[in-house]
Amino acid sequence: MSKQRMSAVDFVRLCNESNSVAEVAQKMGCTVNNVHQRRSTLAKQGVKFKAYADHRGGPHRDVAALIALGEETLPEGAETFVPKTRQTAEVTA
């Protein structure tokens, strides 16, 4: 079964009239990830989209509360995880 791609005009209109990415995906007959990717691509080109409360990653995080929770629940003397930083290429002349 072949799906027809929705025009960019219709996609922007649908996104801004809907209340969630899941709703857009359902109406388009595609995945949530497809909607995120297309919104991201168009947004990088300057297209304005309605912000949804249920964006990928969940609601905005209270980082201060998470830090406090991590310190509170970390067993005494436990080794802590420190992510490695990305190495960047050195600039050569």
Q: Could you explain the architecture of this structure?
A:
The chain is mainly alpha-helical and 93 residues long. It contains 4 helices and no strands.
Quick recap of the structure?
The chain is mostly helical.
Largest sheet: none
Beta percentage is: under 5%
Number of helices: 4
DSSP helix fraction: 40-55%
Assembly type: single chain
User: Tally of extended strands?
Assistant: 0
Radius of gyration: 20 Å
How far is the N terminus from the C terminus? 55 Å
Structural class: mainly alpha
The residue-averaged pLDDT reads: 83
Number of domains: 1
Shape type: elongated
| Unreliable stretches covering 5 or more consecutive residues | none
What order do the SSEs take from the amino end to the carboxyl end, as H and E? HHHH
How are the elements arranged and paired?
Elements: H1 8-17, H2 21-28, H3 32-44, H4 63-73
Helix pairs in contact: 2-3
Keywords:
93 residues, 4 helices, 0% strand
